[in-house]
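Below is how a single chain appears once it has passed through the pipeline. First comes the sequence as given, then the structure the pipeline wrote out for it. We keep one example in the README because the format questions we get most often are answered faster by looking than by reading.
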Amino acid sequence: MAITWKGVFPALTTKFTAADELDLTLFSRNLDAQLEAGVEGIILGGSLGEASVITTEEKATLVKHAVKQIAGRVPVVINIAEGATREALRQATLAEEWGASGLMLLPPMRYKSDARETVEYFRTIARSTSLPIMLYNNPVDYKTEITLDMFEELSAEKNIEAVKESTRDVTNVIRMQNRFGDRFKILCGVDTLTLEELVTGADGLVAGLVCAFPVETVKLYKLIKAGKIQEALPLYRWFMPLLELDIHPKLVQYIKLAETRAGIGSEYVRAPRLTLVGEERERILKVIDHAIATRP
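Resulting structure:
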């Protein structure tokens, strides 16, 4: 399936049972809510999906289950975040076998590759697969920046089509467009910059709080892209305390708690993560419950 790389792409959480197994029933309930809200693609196995602690077998189960449930309505993108090029290549091959529509690709994990190594890593994987690829540019969390010069080198790889823009520098959207025009589609990857990056020309967003609030996320996207900024601003102001849950090291626990309160998720996480307790849990619940009580 071709991917247009626009609209809202939820970075879905991975649902677990109390026994630490995949909860496909709850996963399906959340996926239905996303599709009904009008998302234009989904991403599995990302940071929010607890990529570092799910197995290859679990990824296969999630992708195949999603592909079957979605039945061609939107593309299914699987994240690749590996330390070795060899393993990333294996994951790319498996993704095609599982029926994924595309890949989201991070720089090498654990080892901080330099520019030459990072470009070669991306180029090698791109040339190994027919799947379209979105690069994930997040130097804040992953310490490797994909610079404009690196994108210049990678522009020759036709299936590298998009970037998840998470540099936290809104002006990078403008810089990308000034240099490359529409060669690369740009998806905002930081929830708290949704309006700013969409206004400056981003094509869509890879969102986190959409996992709990899909209707509001899609509505915000549509208002902004329609140029209805004055209508979008009250919704964005209401949303902001929730969106800030996406930029914390415990974003998984915070967003899973929000999903739970919204009725489309659970708090179960996989160790070494632990569910929230005490003052921290009460503080995050206060933010979530206030938003639910005052939702537009």
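The mean pLDDT is 97.

See the next section for the split statistics.
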